[in-house]
Amino acid sequence: MSFVLVVDIQIKSESVAEFMRRLADNALAARQEPGCRQFEALVDTADRTRVMLFEVYDDERAFEAHQQTPHFRKYLAEAVPLLASRVRRVMQKGV
Length: 95
Description:
Number of helices: 3
Largest sheet: 4 strands, antiparallel
Structural class: alpha+beta
Strand content: 35-45%
Radius of gyration: 13 Å
Oligomer: single chain
Low-confidence stretches: none
């Protein structure tokens, strides 16, 4: 069964452009990983400081491997400090 992660992000208003550059780098690299099925960054059209990540991996092991990649570690170090909040939820397909 697939491993699905939804991340609700609130970016600090002064950091939107910088965060989006760092997110784009991480997303591009993540999409190339063998266990990554989908990696989408969705931006709220009414509030560009609100972003939702929708990530689908083959399984939890593939997600754990993603977390060990250099590009993800760089994203954590450089992009997460630009956030006001980040809430991660693990989901599964219901039907």
